[in-house]
Write a structure and sequence with these properties.
The chain contains 22 helices and no strands. By secondary structure, the chain is mainly α. It has 2 domains: 13-460, no CATH class; 461-543, no CATH class.
């Protein structure tokens, strides 16, 4: 009876189902994230200057978060998936328990360091004294995110993405709602004191991570008895010592975390250089430019990655399990499919944000719409970041955990050089930081792609993976831009932007189908793919 209930209760997700669950959650996360950004940027008394204080503190927090936990889910997912692939259910559970204790200690150290060092970081490193309270109120989040990351990685390794997708969604929803409540409270209590408003906004972040962690605990307790049944199946492997398990966890998590650390450092390069290099030239305007770059441009250019991060997350356990089984066919199919979809997502988002930069900013930030050139330049990072993100997931699953870190390290060095050389130039200023980011991600993508091509033989068909997506993107761009220009003459830029983007989505979707970019096998991988393919055959689009 118990086994029957367990079979009904636990349904292992397919690769595509896991991706769709993560993708849907990431879309919701980005939507609520944009709502939060819109609120803060357009809130009287906060704006670009408030974003500068908020984001300076947040990027330091993100750096320590990367050190303590960001790379952990993929590392734990990889180790758990490898053990489950050979039937070592007890070993997978042991990895989880030891990792939980290990990263609880690391997370506590990170929280303590951030809280105790807040004054020094704000005054000496950032040169933004106002960010001290923002940093302190963010510090508790590091401990809880470190613990949550282990739990998410554990369930990802079991290819059960519900825990990750729902906990991350709930966290962002809580964060957005609490941010609005807390900032409005700060307005009432302090009469729009911008420092207190920024600090209260980050208190919301810390509370949201705690609530997300509580959800994960409840999820695990709900699943535990069914996990116990699965752990009772299979042969009992040789038991490794705690020290060897910790060593193995760190051997995988450190290189993966290093990629996240470097990604965070990449963001902090701007916080270290933009204000520092521009203040002697333009005074307080330097803070405003950094606020635009970090509070609006970075948020907007990261939105398309919400669609794509699902592939990077799902690829790690899927490729790890296939590699242990020496299933090269599955490896090649999943990587090729993921790269194709990444390109189909990244290309139109890059071109669309570049072409409609002014309209997007005026639509979303009517009270603070400056930054058109910054957004247009930064849009070029989207395609290279998305492709590198997917490839990194594949490389981590293949055991090449150090390559993404090396590649991004080369990119960060490129960005530092570009920032230092370009930002002080009159007329370029903060645009130099945007150019540096583009160069950074081009360098990183080039290295990881070259490594992937050497590691696996991909089903790489130029006409399907490059030419057809470019044709679809070109058709979309031409039609939507003509629409934008025409409507803008009569109604205005905001309505023109909305209509043009809506038309772009429809035209692009039709172009993908008409050009038959997806193969029959790709379509059949989708949920209800047989019905979708049957409909396309009836419409005589596919033979």
């Amino acid at each position: 009876m118990t086994l029957t209930r367990e079979k009904k209760r636990v349904r292992k997700e397919t690769f595509i189902q896991g991706i769709l669950a993560l993708m849907f959650s990431q879309i919701l996360i980005k939507i609520f994230g944009v709502v939060q950004t819109l609120y803060l940027t357009n809130r009287e008394g906060f704006g670009d200057k408030g974003n500068s204080i908020y984001m300076n503190g947040y990027h330091i927090y993100a750096l320590l978060l990367a050190i303590s936990s960001i790379g952990v889910p993929n590392a734990i997912a990889k180790l758990v998936a490898e053990r489950l692939a050979v039937g070592d259910n007890r070993g997978a559970q042991r990895v989880f328990r030891i990792a939980l204790v290990t990263f609880a200690v690391i997370g506590f150290i990170g929280t303590s360091f951030l809280f105790l060092g807040a004054k020094y970081i704000a005054n000496i490193i950032l040169c933004v004294p106002e960010a001290e309270f923002t940093i302190k109120t963010l510090s508790p989040a590091i401990f809880f995110v470190a613990m949550s990351s282990v739990m998410r990685g554990y369930f990802n390794g079991r290819q059960e993405m519900e825990a990750t997708s729902k906990s991350q969604t709930f966290e962002q929803i809580f964060k957005t709602i609490l941010t609005i409540i807390f900032v409005e409270t700060a307005v009432i209590l302090t009469n729009k004191n911008i420092v207190v408003m920024a600090a209260f906004a980050t208190i919301a972040t810390s509370l949201a991570t705690i609530l997300s962690f509580i959800y994960l605990i409840k999820f695990y307790k709900r699943e535990r008895k069914y996990i116990s049944i699965r752990n009772g199946k299979g042969a009992i492997p040789e038991r490794s010592s705690v020290r060897s398990v910790v060593k193995n966890i760190l051997a995988v998590s450190i290189p993966i975390s290093l990629s996240s650390i470097l990604s965070s450092i990449n963001k902090n390069v701007d916080s270290f250089t933009v204000v520092r290099l521009l203040k002697p030239k333009i005074g307080e305007e330097a803070n405003v430019l950094y606020g635009i770059l970090s509070g609006k441009v970075d948020i907007l250019t990261s939105m398309p990655l919400a669609f794509n991060i699902a592939f990077a997350t799902a690829l790690v356990p899927a490729i790890s399990a296939a590699r242990i089984k020496k299933d090269n066919e599955t490896i090649n199919k999943r990587i090729s499919f993921s790269l194709l979809v990444t390109l189909l997502i990244g290309l139109p988002c890059t071109i669309g944000m570049l072409v409609f930069a002014e309209g997007i900013l005026k639509l979303l930030f009517p009270s603070a719409s400056s930054g058109t050139i910054l957004l247009a330049i930064s849009a070029l990072t989207i395609i290279f970041t998305a492709l590198a993100q997917t490839i990194n997931g594949a490389l981590q699953g293949l055991g090449k955990v150090r390559v993404p870190a090396i590649a991004l390290g080369c990119g960060v060095i490129t960005k530092i050089i570009a920032n230092v050389l370009l930002i002080p130039i009159n007329g370029i200023y903060a645009n130099g930081a945007a150019i540096g980011s583009v160069l950074c991600h081009i360098v990183s993508f080039t290295i990881v792609y070259a490594t992937l091509r050497k590691t696996v033989k991909l089903d790489f068909k130029l006409h399907r993976l490059i030419i057809r997506p470019l044709i679809a993107t070109t058709i979309m761009t031409v039609i939507s831009y003509i629409t934008y220009i025409f409507i803008n003459q009569f109604i205005g830029i905001r309505i023109a932007t909305i209509v043009a983007i809506a038309i772009a989505v429809v035209v692009y979707g039709i172009s993908i189908i008409a050009l038959r970019i997806f193969s029959k096998e790709d379509i059949l991988m989708l949920p209800k793919g047989d019905k979708i393919y049957g409909l396309l055959v009836k419409l005589r689009i596919y033979a």
